[in-house]
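Annex B. Sample input.
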Amino acid sequence: MLNWFKKKKTLDILFSISEIPKKYRKNKIWIKSWEKFDGEYIKKGEKLCELEIENVYWLEPIDVNANKDGILEIFKQSPTESNENLIVDKEKLFAIHNSVDNKKAQELKNKKFENIPKIEIDEFSGTKQLKWESISGRKKNYSYDTDLYDCIITESFDDNFDKLMFALNNIDGKDYIIFKYPTKNYKLKIRDSISFLFENGQIIQYEIENLPYKSFDDTSWGIIYETKVQMTFSEINIFKNQNFSKWQIEFASTGKKITGGRGIANYINLPDLQFAIKKLANDYLKIVQKEISNYIPLNDRNEILTEQQNQNDIESTCYIYLMVDLSNNYYKIGISNKPAYRERTLQSEKPTVEMLCYKEFPNRKIANNIEQALHKTYSKKRIRGEWFDLTEKEVTEIKKMLK
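Annex B, continued. Sample output.
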């Protein structure tokens, strides 16, 4: 390219409008895309980025090449939908450092793997949800861009290059790991599992609990599907503090396994991928603890199982039953998903208990409301808990209702 840049000091590279042909100097100019990343070592003559000039469609994007060897630091990014980010005369676009100290190297690495959060507010509940505009420095400039920018992208070690993308999101105050994948690679079903192995030997396994759904149609990879699994607080901290090694997908119906963890995009090597994963988990926790007021981290995965069981109990059919203790003629008005099993349980404690009748209801919530109504109706006859001293007439009333 022409010498469109001139040096200010040794490291700073400034844009000079005077090198643009006069007829284009009033046109808007911007950086189309960067080929290199912050902190990357570059050599003289290597292509760094491309420039575009407004309404000059016949002109190919203009290459900007490095004018010396060194370590790149980027100051000017490509435009986005919300920001034209146009280049102005004498603006510093980038710098090339001969060398950097540890502090500067860490700063450049953080810039390279920058995560940009997206806080969404549910207008009905008023609660916040944390997702991502972009992860690990891969910035989405326009809404019509179809590449995946909101997750870490990895692929399998074999020649199939099966993709597995993942991110951490907070939804309704809960921590989730989000999985995305192209269906032309494989299809996940309920009970399939995804495991993460870390260099210290720790393994985290996630079982697919909900059928994945279509997220969007990517022009290059095909249909992208998505699903989520709730995480514990300790699992997030493992992602934050331990070096990732590899992942494995296991398909429950066939036993087939896919192993991977090779980074793509700007993950040039495993240490970069490890840094990107750690940074994502670290940024996630900082933002959640600052922004999500209803955040309640999950401490034990068994809490998820208990919650799921309680939900199953609520949604499944339920029974109201009437029992009698023949030793004292007291009656029990109770509720159970399995009344016959409940009878056997009580009989093991007291053999004189006998089931008189029971009736099925569509779900536990309805059954619970009716049970409470019966308890209130005969509250003056309560002996203790669910046991009542009923008359023969009252027993007949309840039997008729539970017929």
